[in-house]
Amino acid sequence: MTRCIVLKCSEIGVHRIPKDNKIRRLWLKAIRREDLIPTNNSRLCRKHFVESDYEKISKYTGVEHQHKYLKKSAVPSVFAWNTQPVSEKAKARQDRLKARNLKKKLLFEMPSTSQSCEDIVPLKRR
Q1: How far apart are CA 25 and CA 17, in angstroms?
Q2: Contact 5/27 with Cβ under 8 angstroms?
Q3: Is residue 112 part of a domain?
Q4: Are the beta carbons of 9 and 42 closer than 8 angstroms?
Q5: How buried is residue 23: exposed, middle or buried, by Cβ count under 10 Å (0-12/13-18/19+)?
Q6: Is residue 83 in some structural domain?
Q7: Which of 44, 58, 107, 124 has the greatest number of CB atoms lying within 10 Å of its CB?
């Protein structure tokens, strides 16, 4: 069994590195191992791909696949160095940012004060 070539990953590798040079370079850059010379036995495990990287329905028959098939254009994107758990401080900051953006949105969607005053209180003309 071939192990995943990503550093600090000990899973069993299932996806071969593509033969297409353009995509191969993207994979090696994403893996952060530009010095690696991939062989036929070099593989990556499923942990490094998101669900959208897989084809769900066959483009030939229109039937759902029983197994996961990686799209030809898929590039690994899930690694230990970019998926750190979100701290409590970061969550609190995200919540504050969402609340602030919501307030701004509500503020700018309201009509201006001059328009709303005329609608509410009709002006007396002499």
Answers
A1: 10
A2: no
A3: yes
A4: no
A5: middle
A6: no
A7: 44
Overall domain count for the chain? 1
Range of the domain at 95: 88-120
| Residue listed under structure tokens 């409590």 | 88
User: Is residue 81 assigned to a domain?
Assistant: no
31 touches 39 (CB < 8 A): no
Nearest of 5, 74, 72 to residue 37 by alpha carbon:
5
Predicted model pTM: 0.59
| 33 lies in some domain | no
SS (H, E, C) 13-77: CCEECCCCHHHHHHHHHHHCCCCCCCCCCCEECHHHCCHHHEEEECCCCCCEEEEEEECCCCCCC
